[in-house]
């Protein structure tokens, strides 16, 4: 048994991760569980991967399923293929700050519970590789450690709350003997080299907000712009880090924060984007609650300005993230998170060249 079971394909992370996983796992196949509405996209993505890397031919198998159902909704013949699975990568989730509670709970929590049930039934399971998020921290005040989880924190939205609940399920299973590693990416943006991304959310909302203004851009200061930090991380670092960490014996049972150890402040983020876009910034102090009320309460204003009300919370957050274990265990691999200043222009160049990319999450 050497195959891997993957959820979240053909999503942003899984699509880039698969070739690395298979290159490192000689002869293994990837069994990708894909919802019916995404099958065409998934098969097209497989064709693209094989075209660029012919050695992947026949090694990426797309099967119809649904992680919220028992046995992941797999048909009987596809379920039989689980006998050859020794490793599970669970990346599927609704990555959307505006997601409703019912959908978030069904996919993020119930879906993870179903994946854990399958893991428990796999006799030859060597490890579950589970992708969480730094934002299980919620409204935690201070530096959130990689081993921390339940600190009595409240949450900014249903995405955070349900990813917290899902990681709690994984932690409970680990305490019961499940071999697993947990990865917590920060706010994942495009590739640091090409800028490529599948959707414009997070800091891209800020870029849209600045672009829609004149030469002088007015930016509301909803928090301390010189103290609040935005935990961005480019996709290529997340992929390379997970790939390297996943095969280390020492990573078994550990949790890794995959984010910039020196994240930019809000002022640095705004000023960097504004400079690239040829804007001069005027900061206007505005209480967060009032800013959210105005943005969320006036019909059409979110669309007009290019930023959702939920996104404002992260410009006033007091949470930062320790990356001690990540940096320690990646020593010697050559994998380091690039500095924001080194790839910021690349992100905006891609955004300008690809206006067809939207901000919707894959559901």
UniProtKB/TrEMBL annotation:
The species this protein was found in: Longivirga aurantiaca
The protein here is known as: SDR family oxidoreductase
Checking SUPFAM superfamilies in the record gives: NAD(P)-binding Rossmann-fold domains (SSF51735)
Question: Signal sequence span per UniProt?
Answer: none
Q: Which domain of life is it from?
A: Bacteria
Give start and end of each Thioester reductase (TE) domain. 6-242
Could you tell me which PANTHER family the record lists for this protein? BIFUNCTIONAL POLYMYXIN RESISTANCE PROTEIN ARNA, SHORT CHAIN DEHYDROGENASE_REDUCTASE FAMILY 42E, MEMBER 2
Q: Name one Pfam family in it.
A: NAD_binding_4
């Amino acid at each position: 048994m050497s195959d891997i079971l993957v959820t979240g394909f053909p999503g942003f992370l899984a699509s880039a991760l698969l070739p690395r996983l298979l290159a490192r796992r000689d002869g293994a196949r990837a069994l990708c569980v894909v919802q019916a509405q995404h099958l065409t996209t998934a098969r097209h993505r497989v064709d693209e991967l094989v075209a660029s890397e012919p050695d992947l031919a026949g090694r990426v198998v797309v099967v119809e399923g649904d992680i919220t159902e028992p046995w992941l909704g797999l048909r009987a013949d596809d379920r039989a293929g689980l006998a050859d699975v020794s490793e599970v990568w669970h990346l599927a989730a609704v990555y959307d700050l505006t997601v409703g509670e019912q959908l978030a709970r069904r996919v993020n929590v119930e879906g993870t519970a179903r994946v854990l049930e399958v893991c428990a039934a796999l006799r030859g399971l060597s490890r579950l590789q589970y992708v969480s998020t730094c934002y299980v921290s919620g409204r935690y005040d201070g530096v959130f450690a990689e081993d921390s989880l339940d600190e009595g924190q409240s949450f900014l939205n249903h995405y955070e709350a349900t990813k917290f609940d899902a990681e709690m399920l994984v932690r409970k299973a680990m305490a019961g003997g499940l071999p697993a590693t947990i990865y917590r990416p920060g706010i994942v943006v495009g590739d640091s080299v090409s800028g490529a991304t599948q959707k414009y959310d997070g800091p891209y909302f800020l870029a849209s907000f600045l672009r829609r203004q004149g030469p002088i851009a007015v930016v509301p200061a909803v928090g301390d712009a010189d103290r609040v930090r935005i935990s961005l991380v480019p996709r290529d670092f997340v992929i390379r880090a997970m790939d390297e960490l996943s095969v280390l014996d020492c990573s078994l049972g550990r949790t890794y924060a995959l984010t910039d150890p020196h994240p930019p402040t809000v002022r640095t983020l705004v000023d960097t984007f504004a400079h690239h876009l040829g804007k001069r910034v005027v900061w206007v102090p505005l209480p967060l609650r009032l800013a959210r009320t105005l943005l969320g309460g006036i019909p059409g204003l979110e669309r007009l300005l290019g930023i959702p009300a939920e996104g404002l919370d992260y410009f006033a957050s007091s949470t930062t993230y320790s990356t001690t274990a990540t940096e320690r265990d990646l020593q010697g691999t050559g994998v380091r998170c690039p500095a924001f200043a080194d790839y910021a222009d690349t992100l905006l160049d891609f955004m300008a060249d690809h206006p067809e990319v939207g901000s919707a999450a894959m559901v």
